[in-house]
Amino acid sequence: MKAASVASPPAGHAPARSPLARILANTGWLIGGKGFGALCGLGYLAILTRALGLKEFGHFSLIFGAAQALIALAGFETWRVVVRYGARHVHQANWERFGRLGMLCGLIDALGAVLGCLIAFIAFYGFADLLDLNTAFIDMGFAFCCAMVWALVSAPTGMVRALHRFDRAVYVEAIVPAGRLIAAIAIWQTGPSVGRFLLAWALVDLAEAACYWAMARRLCPRAVRLSHLRDWRLALRENPGLPAFLLVTHAGGSIDAAMRHGPLMAAGALASTSAAGLYRLASQLTQALGKLSALLTRSVYAEIAHSRVAADAGGFRRLAVQTSLLAAAAGAIVVTIALLAGEPLLALIGGSGFTGAAALLVPLSIAASLELGSVAFEPVLHASGRARAALACRILGMVCMATAIALLFDRGGPGIAWSVAIGSAASYLGLGATVCSTIRRKGRS
Q1: Strand (E) or helix (H) holding 262
Q2: How high is the mean pLDDT of the chain?
Q3: Which of 120, 119, 64, 106 is nearest to 209 (CA)?
Q4: Exposure check for the chain: N or C terminus, fewer CB within 10 A?
Q5: Separation CA 4–CA 52 (nearest Å)
Q6: pLDDT the model gives residue 230
Q7: What are the pLDDT digits (tens) for 289-343?
């Protein structure tokens, strides 16, 4: 009787279904939540652009982009570690090992936040002039970045995803878009400023972080315990290869952040703050249209990790092919929507002052569709023990993007946007070829 209770799943553990059915169900929950988030996002983005104007919105965009880049640089994407190694512990219902792994990753998140604060200090007090950032925004930009790196909730996010509780995560993740929209309306009515918007964004993200830890604790109370923190050495022994995997995925996340936020910084440094504002608005719109890539990544990554543990080689290959075809079709839809409705949406959200962002929509939507089309590639390579190969493909894309920016930056925002599309295409081709090779190799073994 006692043994049965040890092996029983935690409260709210998801019922068994086929891998593709779980991916679609999890993505459905995420789409529901992110659909709500997208509507809120368009609302507060419209308020930001109209309340601040092009120049001030450019300053806000540079500070926010710097924070997002710092999160990727200092954060270790420990959710991938929890899902990659925790899938076996969840499959075996070993909640003590799962808890030690999750709390080790939480400790890594905290160390990353400390590192992020140090990097933010150097960036804002040493290189703010390179970004054409007004000196009045340096202190608040530094404080905002510190708050955002501490609001990173990677470890509990991974625990919730490893347990397949995407339905519960939807409610927690609704806090950010809803909170930002409410705050934006209040600030707009009482006196908008860059500092007030940054403060509201930081407080909302910190609230989400606290709620995510509370949700992980509620779903698996035997795992989320402070007592597991002292067992970090045991967690490392129980999950061989974890440090190497952590470093490789961290490097990949940093490269992804460089490709996502580097062009925004380049627009500010090589062109102007106003150019950064235009790039930010166009990028936000295409990312909103391509949000499905992030949603599919979350559900696909978890399911492929579980499938690698529980399924045979044939089932693993079928899942990889099915998710890749699904993502490719979604990518084509993203480009079509951006081409047909992108420019009217820009005018609706930003007003006449932001119509210059229309020239950036085509290349950025192509980049978003390529990112969406490759959504299953990295999870397959990580689950197959080829994380370094995935990293090499990301490096290839970053090098191609940086080279293109160096050649095209004199064309302003459109040149930088096409550089992003070129880098995304290089990553897509490299990852696709590597995945095909990996699947063929698995089929022969």
Answers
A1: helix 242-266
A2: 79
A3: 106
A4: N
A5: 59
A6: 93
A7: 555 555 555 555 555 665 655 555 566 666 666 666 666 676 677 677 777 776 7
Place of tokens 């120049």: 55
pLDDT band for position 131 (cuts 50, 70, 90):
low
Spatial separation of the C-alpha atoms in residues 306 and 316, rounded to whole Å:
10
Mind listing the pLDDT tens digit for each residue in 54-104? 788 888 888 888 888 888 788 888 998 999 899 889 988 999 999 999 999
pLDDT score at 12? 47
- Alpha-carbon distance of 291 to 84, in angstroms, equals 23
3-state secondary structure of 33: helix
- Asked if residues 442 and 384 have their Cβ atoms less than 8 Å apart, the reply is yes
Output the six-digit token pair for 120: 């933010």
CB count in 10 Å sphere of residue 425? 16
Q: Which residue has the tokens 């790196």?
A: 149
Q: Give the gyration radius of the chain's Cα atoms.
A: 21
Paired tokens of 44: 């507060």
Residue type, 399: V
Indicate the length of the chain as a whole number.
445
Specify whether the backbone of 12 is left (phi greater than 0), alpha (psi in -120 to 50) or beta: left
Tokens 């779980």 belong to which residue?
Answer: 22
Distance CA 304, CA 438 (A): 14
Global pTM reads: 0.69
Q: Give the integer Cα–Cα distance in Å for 153 and 110.
A: 10
**Which tokens in the block code for residue 383?**
């689950």
Say how far apart CA 188 and CA 192 lie, in whole Å. 5
Exposure class string for 132-153: b at 16+ Cβ within 10 A, else e = bbbeebbebbbbbbbbbbbbbb
Q: Which long-range contacts (CB under 8 A, 24 or more apart) does 104-107 make?
A: 104/228, 104/229, 104/232, 104/235, 104/236, 105/76, 105/78, 105/79, 105/81, 105/154, 105/155, 105/158, 106/78, 106/155, 106/156, 106/229, 107/229, 107/232
- The ranges assigned to domains in the chain are 17-444
Is residue 358 classed as helix, strand or coil in its secondary structure? helix
Single-letter amino acid code for the residue at 209: A
Is the pLDDT confidence value at 4 over 60? no
Q: For residue 414, which of 232, 255, 282 has the smallest C-alpha distance?
A: 282
Contact in structure between 326 and 317 (CB atoms under 8 Å): no
Q: What CA–CA distance (Å, rounded) separates 7 from 4?
A: 5
